[in-house]
Design brief:
Helix content is 64%, strand content 9%. It is an alpha/beta fold. It has 3 domains: 46 residues; 161 residues, abc type-2 transporter like domain (abc type-2 transporter like fold, 3-Layer(aba) Sandwich), CATH 3.40.1710.10; 230 residues, no CATH class.
Length: 450
């Protein structure tokens, strides 16, 4: 073999280690899983949602055309629309909930009791107004939930359905024998926009605002936190693990361990120094991202004031977010110290950062796409187990007064950080850092080697 072939073979052996290969495979599995999750969320969001129709009887209108007399109603249109989309007739009651009431307060109560996110409230004078040539009123009612990027798509689907109802009624009116000359009424017989859109946020009813507008404004305030946390953890983790690999390669770690210094002091010193660097990076990124997001969303702002909706944070809430961020950095550093202990040199240390990157990316994508509140029990369990998830969720959770989730995350991260630090101290007190894992006495006994 030529010299260049030997060099290529040597480099490939050093770069394609079992750890690096496993990391790449895990990354492929991660993105495949995320792709499947996104597809599932999109399909779920685009499907016809569960819809409550309140005071449906008021929408019944009798028409007479060339073929005779027939009745039209919002519920009959919805049933035809849902069945044409492939929903069996015997399952329609699971999607369309009809409520015989002329009270909008009862609509709110039913939505709250049964967990229905969308409703149409038909004005008691709807059919009378239509027959007399006056626009009938149908109010769209939504419950806003912090369910990630695709969580509010269902409300836009309902709005589109309402547009189809309006169009169908317009065609009916144009084909009847009713003598009407108001073309504006004939083309737009239903008044369903503007103040007739109502969104329930934290139990408060807000008029003229859609869930999409609220989600967009909340995202502009909270979405930069997951991105910043991911960047900080990946950068600080790379620095710490690479530093430990360099120390081993340059033999400075052996010198440090021979000094009359407690191993706990060495571990604490490394973690505190790295944590300070992480906080500096975090502050710098937060300032930079804040300026960037403000300039990006400034021209697209809906003018919505989150304070009017009660979606703001107090000084104490911000303190909890910062504490959560600090603890997540400590947890990351504890993991880095453990991974760095098994790095043979600087080059092998580079491959050790991949597991940390995966752990940082998983919660970021989950929080962005489905959110904590929009995820199933399994995804919530995985998200909670990853310590970096908690500062990503903290800001939005505090906006919705879910202090329990934030405090539980902080308690979990404290336990996780203490556990990783104790494991690191144990490794520093062993001979693994100097001799490597293969030469460790315990490992030799387990493998039967002497």
């Amino acid at each position: 073999m030529s010299h260049i072939t030997n060099i290529i073979s040597k480099e490939l052996k050093e770069l394609l280690t079992p750890g690096s290969v496993i990391s790449v495979v895990l990354m492929v599995v991660l993105f495949a899983g995320l792709g499947g999750m996104i597809d599932s969320e999109i399909e779920k969001a685009q499907a016809f949602p569960e819809l409550c129709v309140v005071n449906e009887d008021a929408s019944i209108i009798e028409f007479t055309d060339a073929d005779g007399t027939y009745t039209w109603s919002i519920s009959s249109f919805l049933e035809d629309l849902y069945t044409s989309s492939g929903i069996p007739e015997d399952e329609l009651s699971d999607y369309i909930r009809l409520v015989d009431s002329d009270s909008i307060d009862e609509a709110y109560a039913i939505m709250d009791e049964e967990g229905i996110g969308s409703a149409l409230f038909v004005d008691p004078d709807f059919s009378k107004d239509i027959v007399s040539g006056t626009r009938g009123v149908v109010e769209q009612i939504y419950v806003y939930e912090p369910t990630g990027m695709f969580g509010t798509v269902s409300s836009s689907v309902v709005s589109s359905v309402m547009s189809m109802i309006n169009e169908d009624l317009s065609k009916r009116l144009l084909g009847t024998q009713i003598d009407m000359t108001d073309y504006g009424f004939l083309t737009e017989p239903i008044d369903y926009n503007g103040d007739n859109v109502k969104t329930i946020v934290n139990g408060k009813v807000v008029s003229g605002i859609t869930p999409q507008e609220i989600a967009g404004e909340v995202s502009s305030q909270t979405m930069m936190i997951p991105i910043i946390i991911m960047i900080i953890i990946m950068m600080v983790g790379s620095l710490v693990i690479s530093s430990m690999g360099s120390e081993k390669e340059n033999k400075t770690l052996e010198t440090l361990l021979t000094l009359p210094i407690k191993r706990t002091s060495i571990v604490a010193g490394k973690i505190i120094a790295a944590a300070i660097v992480g906080l500096v990076y975090g502050l710098a990124y937060m300032v930079g991202m804040s300026i960037y997001m403000n300039s990006l969303t400034g021209t697209m702002s809906s003018g919505l004031n989150l304070e009017d909706l009660g979606l703001t944070l107090s000084v104490g809430d911000y303190a909890l977010v910062m504490l959560s961020m600090f603890l997540s950095i400590i947890c990351a550093l504890g993991i880095c110290m453990i991974l760095g202990a098994f790095a043979k040199n600087y080059k092998s240390a580079q491959t050790m950062t991949m597991p940390l990157s995966i752990m940082a990316m998983i919660p970021m994508f989950i929080v962005m796409f489905s959110g904590w509140y929009g995820s199933g029990a399994l995804i919530q369990a995985v998200t909670f187990a990853i310590p970096f998830s908690h500062p990503m969720m903290a800001m939005q959770a505090l906006m919705y007064d879910d202090v329990t989730l934030v405090l539980s995350g902080i308690a979990y991260m404290v336990v996780f950080a203490v556990a990783t630090i104790l494991i690191t101290v144990k490794l520093y007190n062993s001979d693994i850092l100097i001799t490597g894992l293969g030469q460790n006495k315990t490992v030799q006994k387990l493998t039967g080697r002497k």
